[in-house]
Amino acid sequence: MFIDDFLKSASVLVCDDPTGSDPAFRQALDAAGITSVQSVADPQAAQALLRDARFDLIVLDLDSAQSPALDFLAQRQHASIETPDPPILVVIHPNDTALRHRALALGAVDYVERPFDMEALQVRICNALRIRQAQRRQSHFDEELEHRVAARTAELINATDAIVHRLAMVCEKADVNAATHIVRVGKMAHLLAKTAGLGAERCFMIERAAPLHDVGMLSVSDDILRKAGRLSDEELAQVRCHAQIGEDLLGNHQSALIQMAASIASNHHERWDGTGYPNGLQGESIPIEGRITAICDVFDALTSKRPYKDPWSVQNAVDYLVAQAGHCFDPTLVAHFVAHLDAVEAVLARYPDTH
To answer: Both 133 and 191 in a single domain?
Structure first.
């Protein structure tokens, strides 16, 4: 039986030298097949030993209500909130009901009385070790479940990233460097969100949603997107529709990620001073994910080659952001962006254009 194998490998810590050397106690351990036993003189020595060694059962002698062993019990009960502690079996004097109740209230799993009843002692030791066996099996199950959930979550994240990436590339159909552009925008958006103090989950979602900022461009004709010269008023109006169309395409979905992408698609052309589109939002009424993506998208567009322009230098692009802070862009976010320019340039270097 599995419990027999567990008993043979179990390690017992006895916190009281007389108990550890008691012939009846040793006989009960031997009868249960337990050979790994270590004794210490007091609870302080036991605490030190438990920091470095692994035990499956602690046997603790309680001689009075003032015993330091009660403090040890309380400390182990608190520690077991984080990690399951070895079960504690207390040894008490006969008829000390109050002490027995106190020990059980502090987390002892069972008790034995002196003088030892050999059969009862052996059964109670085995029962306590069965608790430890169950703890270990549950811990193993939890770890395996956590590993499987993590692997499945990673698989879903990778699949989501791949879908978003491919859809974003379709949206950037006029840009031969779309693959790297959308990655850079996502990475820079994550960086800016983090430096602005957003939580890890929102930073995670912004990085994955920002590449879809131009999903509404699917509605704009290729001729307009590839036009090298200035757009006519009619063409410009068609391009400006992409923000609202992007929100319409992605909106009304339960997924927090898709909701974030819809917000970014709708708001990344809003301006801090209220002169942007599609809704003329102003200041902090523009959702922060839209304000973040606006800065990252413009910066990356300026520093990248386009059919109608050569790439700007990083410094010129930064100067533009600073000049437009308070007009086009959130000035606080621009300051964060500039303050972490080294990290921004690292993103540009890691994901360069290929054409």
So the answer is: no
